[in-house]
Amino acid sequence: MYTIRTWDLPTRLFHWALVLCVVALNVTGNIGGDVMALHFLLGYCVLALVFFRFFWGLLGGHWSRFSHFPMGLKSINTYLRGQWPPTHLGHNPVGSYSVIAILSVLLLQALTGLLSDDEIANQGPLTSLVSGEWVSLATSWHTQLGKLFVLVLSIIHVLAIVIYKLKKDVALVPPMIHGNKTLDQPAPASADGWRQRLWAMALLTCCSALVWSLVHLADGT
Hints:
Fumarate Reductase Cytochrome B subunit, mainly alpha
């Protein structure tokens, strides 16, 4: 048997940090009031994490790269016909599209949050840079459809994990904790040494600086 490093540490930390942030965002958004300051801070964290994941999808470990997401028509057809190999590492076609969908919706949700205004006590840091019509559109999306999309995609993600465990006896959560999968044949492993981890830390720092600059874009106006 071969133990293959599938998910590198930066990918795993990103995943669980994003889970915690999304849960906390839903809680603080529903509570409102004084905790909205935390809601905004968590939104900035999600934006930095999403930026990081898009870059890490180009530069990260083997199975974290978008280039190794099976999203072609042939892969989709194989999966839908029930012929997808159980020994495949990384995401399956549905999982690949799910990752892209979640990242895209969270990106839009975070960006619209920067432009939202509840007309009571809270407004995004960039509302002064756009017209009232755009603020209204962003607020409507952020508080209604966007919030619903995040909830639906999150539920689908959890259901997929449960179904894989019950129907196929495949546990998807443990590899996202320890990073490894065991196969009866060799397969490419994701690089996960200190060089990659330091590079990921530097990349996350740059993404955080980018978000900080974006949040303070209106300070000089």
